[in-house]
Structures are given as C-alpha cells and as structure tokens.
Design brief:
- The complex is a heterodimer of chains A (291) and B (266).
- Chain A has one domain.
- Helix content of chain A is 71%, strand content 3%.
- Chain A has 11 helices and 2 strands, in the order H-H-H-H-E-E-H-H-H-H-H-H-H.
- Chain A is globular and about 60 Å long.
- The N and C termini of chain A lie far apart (54 Å).
- Chain B has a 6-stranded mixed beta sheet, sandwiched between helices.
- The mean pLDDT of chain B is 88.
- Classes of the chains: A mainly alpha (291), B alpha/beta (266).
- At the A-B interface, helix 6 and helix 7 of A face helix 2 and helix 4 of B.
Chain lengths: 291, 266
C-alpha cells in the first residue's frame, strides 16, 4: 500500500517534470534550440498566478489563465527580441543566451521588494483536502496536477493533429526550408511555439505551487525536468511526459527506500543508464545518416 | 505593351567582396520553359534563391505578372503561385508521401482553427477538394505505389518525384526546378523530361529551371540563359546558346588554353 502511495505522489511530481520537459521538447523540435530558461518561465508563471490570486482576488481557473497569458507574452517576446537576432549563430551562443535570460529573470524577480527571497504560498480552493480510497490517502493537489496534465496533453495533441496550424508546426519541425515554400510563416510560428511552451511552463508553476511554495529559485526544478526530456528522446512530446513520470516515480521511491541524498541523485542515474543503454531515449528518432 | 509574365531586372547579390550575381536581367513568357545553365559557381542557384526569397538582392527587382515580389518574405511566395524544388531534395521526412502532398495543397486553404477543430462542413468540403487535387497529381506522376510510404524510406529517384508532386499541389503559376535530373538515372531522367513537358503543356505552368544535363535542356527548354561568374553570357534557343563562343569558352576554356594543355600533356 505504501508503495502505491509513493507511486501516486511520484506520478504527480512527474507530471510537473513532464510539463517542463514538454516545453524543452516543443522548442527543440521547432527551432533546434534548448531553452534553459524553461524553469524560470515556470517561476514567472507562479508569481503571475500569485499576483492574480492575492492582489486581484481571482478564482483558481482565472489564476491559471492569467499565469499562462503573462508567461506566453514573455516567451513570445523572448523569442522575438532576444533569440531571433542571434539565429544562425552557434548552438552554444543560443544556449548561453537562454541561461542568461534565466539568471536575469531570477535576479529581477528578487529585486521586487514584496517578493525578495521569501517564499509565498498560493491560495488554492482545495488546499489540504484528501481523498481516502481503498486504504490510500490521495491529496487533492495530486489529483488536480494529474487531471490538468491529462487535459493539457489532450489539448496539445488535438492542436498538433487536427488543426492546420498544428500540422504546419509539425511540418516546420521536420523541414524548415520546405515549410517556407508551403506558405508556412515559419518565423511567426516559432514565436508562437515559444509562447505555447512558456504557457505550459506557467501551468506547471501553478500546479507546483501548493507542493513547494512560490519563490525566486523555484525554477531550478528545470534542471530535473531536463533528464525527463532526455529519457523521452528529446524529440517526442509523449516521450517528455513519460520521461517526467519516470523521473517523478524514481525520485519518490528513491527518497523513501534509499539513503538520504539518493532522492536528488536518482533522476540523473536513470539518465546515465538510459544514455548507455538507449542513447536516443525511449521515443527518440534514430538519427542514422544515409550514405 | 503589357508586362511580361516574369521579369528580373538587373538583380545583383554580393557576399562580402564576391559578386555572386552581377546585374542579371531576363524575362520569361507565360507557358515557357526557361533554363539557366552554366559551370559550377556561375550563380545559377543564387538567382533561384533570389527569386524564391532566400537571399535579398543588393540591387534590382523581380516582378511576377506586373507585381513586385523583390521584398516579400519566403513564406508569401507560395500564395502568389511560385513553387520550387531543391537540388538536394527538401521533404518532410517523417511523413507519408500523401501527407507531403497534402501540405502542399493546403497553401491556398483558408479556414480558421476553430472551424478546423470542430470539423465543420465547410472544412470537410475544403479537405475533400484538396484531396481530389492531390489524387490528380498522384495520377499524373505515377505516385500511387508510394502513396502511404514514409518519405524517409523511399529511394532517391522517387523522392525527387515526390518533391515535384508537392510543388505541383501548391497549384503554381511559376515552377522553379533546381537541377531536376541530378542524381537520377537515364530512365528516370527520361520520365522527368516527359513530366516537365506535361506540366507546361497540359497544366499551363511556366517553368524556370537550372540544369546540367544538356540532353534534357535541349529537349524541354524553349529558351536558355547561360551564366558565368555571376553574369549572363548568352540567351536564346538551346542550340544557339550551346554553340555560342562565350559559352563554349566558359565550359571548356579558350582554344589557346586547350592548345596549352595539349602541349603540357605531350
């Protein structure tokens, strides 16, 4: 029973990792760039939600929408103003810029007097409620996280599979040059993808808030979501979620059954094992060059 | 006098100190097959990349049906009726042949995302019409055997045809073919020649092409433009351009240089 309990809380935590990993993969597939500021977008989303909930007194669903909107705009501008001018430079330069953006975001948030380095708690309607079911105790936070993640994944899957804009995004991720000549506005869609993945990060931030509080350094969770994306293969959207769930469950079990300290190291051990056994990840494309 | 179908006026492009294309002017009439030839580095592909808006010309302008297209972004030209293929084939590798062609056909579709998500009757009608157009192209190019195959697994020759088919699905007025015969065997080149003839004669599409295979060039071209070092050497009927002294010289050198080589060899 305890084991099942641990798996469930691991899955909930894994959903958060999965959502952040989803942001990594979306951006990587569309623009072949890794956005290391994904965690900071989550943090900004958390604070935007906090502002909407406490200062504006919005209900929970509106808090999510505000957080998504604010971060989406920041993600969009990030691509437009900071990244587009350096497109075509080496991948290292672009990665450094995203890391720099992350540091700046963290610094700027800390400089806001009411925020500083304090931790803040986001008021949620289901705080502290638990469900008892067949001997299990499941907290409402975990149920909300899992439900929202499922809904969000469904919405994204529908976007990519059934709408023209989603199919255009798939096309551009497969061949940018060809996409231009199919009339696909590649640059505009790149900005849009940055906005979408920022909004996904914001949702992760709002979902995470009841578990860890909101603070300027909450974005470091991105470092743990990165292995999730690697396990999934870095090019697969379902892979990102599955990778996140694996990391979440492994971490949860390691934290309970293994010695102190293994909790944080376990995800990276899983990644190491994965890179040795299956370097392209669970769902990665096999990149074999035809000669 | 009405404006020609397609016109390039004094286009130049410079990469650093190198003038890749230097004041090139030509026009193409409706329904024509216009071929650009020249030795490697002559600037043929650069001219293509200017027309298809990958490069911005440093001088000059390009006009399609009297409308200036010099400054349009690359994704806009498909909507105006310009399609292109690539020397090294640019396809959506992890999609089927049918999906590649359908993406081409969607250039002109205008429905909104909400209607698409709900799959309203208008969307359904539009999709059916596009699918019919795609099937016509599949018939024309004999692609039925590959319809549901993944592009990544197809042999080179078939991929080349898929790329041509995808360009046709965008319903172009002007088709740019970048070395349509490169990498094809004799038989496949023969098929390509047939299709280029069909495309101009039956579909009324104007073709501008870059090509090295002189048999194909002579067979399908109405007019030929020879380039070297970014400039136009000669323009006119295929046979007359091939005999033009400047063209012969660009390909195999001057008689004096040839004699020089002979002396060195003996």
């Amino acid at each position: 029973m305890q084991f099942v309990q641990l798996v469930i809380s691991g899955l909930a935590q894994g959903c958060i990792y999965g959502l952040i990993a989803l942001g990594f993969v979306l951006i990587y597939k569309a623009t072949e760039t890794v956005n290391f500021a994904q965690g900071e977008l989550l943090m900004i989303g958390g604070f935007a939600g906090l502002f909407a909930a406490t200062t504006l007194g919005f209900p929970y669903w509106a808090v999510i929408l505000v957080a998504m909107a604010v971060t989406a705009v920041i993600g969009f501008l990030n691509e437009r103003i900071i990244l587009r001018p350096i497109l075509g430079q080496s991948a290292v330069a672009i990665v450094m810029v995203t890391i720099g953006f992350g540091y700046m975001a963290r610094g700027l948030v800390t400089m806001i007097p009411v925020i500083g380095t304090d931790t803040h708690s986001l008021p949620v309607p289901f705080r502290g409620e638990v469900f008892r079911f067949a001997g299990l105790v499941i907290s409402a936070e975990h149920i909300v996280i899992i439900t929202v993640t499922i809904l969000l994944c469904g919405a994204l899957a529908a976007l990519f599979r059934y709408t023209k804009i989603g199919i255009a995004m798939q096309a551009m991720s497969q061949n940018q040059l060809a996409a231009y000549y199919m009339g696909i506005p590649v640059k505009r869609l790149s900005s849009l993808i940055w906005a979408i993945s920022a909004a996904v990060a914001a949702i992760a931030g709002i979902l995470l808030a009841p578990l860890t509080f909101i603070h300027a350094n909450m974005g470091f969770i991105g470092i743990k979501a990165f292995p999730a994306a690697v396990i999934g293969g870095f090019t697969s959207l379902p892979g990102a979620i599955v990778g996140g769930l694996i990391i979440g469950v492994v971490e949860s079990l390691a934290g309970f059954y293994l010695m102190e300290g293994f909790k944080d190291a376990a995800p990276f051990m899983v990644v190491l094992a994965m890179l040795v056994l299956k370097p392209n990840g669970l769902f990665g494309e096999r990149l074999a060059k035809k000669v | 006098m009405s404006a020609p179908f397609f016109q390039a006026e004094g286009i130049s492009v410079q990469f650093g100190g190198l003038k890749a294309v230097d004041g090139v002017s030509f026009h193409v009439d409706k329904g024509e097959v216009f071929t650009i030839i020249g030795p490697n580095g002559a600037g043929k592909t650069t001219v293509f990349n200017i027309i298809s808006r990958i490069y911005n010309p440093t001088a000059g302008r390009i006009m399609l049906e009297g409308q200036e297209v010099t400054k349009l972004p690359a994704h806009r030209i498909a909507g105006l009726g310009i399609a292109r293929t690539f020397q090294n084939i640019e396809l959506f590798e992890h999609a089927t042949v049918l999906q590649n062609l359908l993406i081409g056909a969607h250039v002109h579709r205008t429905t909104n995302p909400l209607a698409e998500a709900l799959f309203l009757p208008s969307v359904k009608r539009a999709e059916v019409a596009l699918r019919e157009r795609v099937e016509e192209v599949i018939d024309l190019l004999d692609l039925a055997v590959h319809r549901d195959a993944m592009v990544a697994g197809l042999p080179y020759g078939a991929r080349k045809v898929v790329e041509l088919g995808r360009a046709l699905c965008t319903r172009p007025k002007l088709l740019l073919l970048d070395e349509p015969s490169s990498g094809l065997n004799v038989e496949e080149t023969e098929d390509m020649a047939f299709w280029i003839e069909d495309i101009t004669r039956d579909l009324g599409i104007t073709v501008i092409m870059v090509e090295h295979d002189m048999t194909l060039v002579s067979r399908v071209s109405d007019r030929v433009m020879a380039m070297n070092q970014g400039r136009v050497l000669a323009m006119g009927q295929p046979a007359e351009v091939q005999r033009h002294p400047a063209v012969v010289e660009a390909y195999i050198g001057t008689p004096a240089a040839a004699a020089e080589l002979e002396r060195a060899a003996s």
